[in-house]
Design a protein that fits this description.
Layout lengths: L6 H15 L5 H39 L5 H14 L9 H16 L10
Length: about 120
């Protein structure tokens, strides 16, 4: 049986190849190569971690909003409730839900981000 490389593996391989070329490039091209490699690394993390992060976000929103739905409709409902003032900073569970959702997204977008004490 032939097993094809997974998307995450392909993205990682291309990013590594770009990084291997970068030292020999002129400064502007080296910078653009770093940007490209970083973008590919973000895509790789999104492929690897995104589905679990989305599932966790959906579960948190179901618990917060009190009804089932897909992630897009739950997000839309949350936005509507925030916009109308039905929910706000004093809504039980809101800030914890938003913080957890943001932490999951930061792990994908900026994995080297270090939270400040008490953050």
């Amino acid at each position: 049986m032939i097993e094809h490389p997974r998307a995450e593996e392909l993205v990682e391989a291309v990013a590594s190849w770009i990084e291997s070329l970068r030292p020999s490039l002129p400064p502007r091209d080296a910078f653009l190569a770093r940007v490209a490699a970083n973008a590919l690394a973000t895509v790789g993390r999104e492929l690897a971690q995104g589905p679990a992060a989305d599932q966790a976000t959906q579960a948190r929103l179901v618990a917060l909003l009190g009804h089932e739905g897909d992630l897009a409709s739950l997000n839309a409902d949350l936005c509507d409730r925030l916009e109308t003032g039905e929910m706000g900073v004093h809504t039980p569970g809101l800030l914890a839900t938003l913080k957890a959702n943001i932490i999951d997204q930061i792990a994908i977008d900026q994995p080297n981000y270090v939270s400040q004490p008490g953050g």
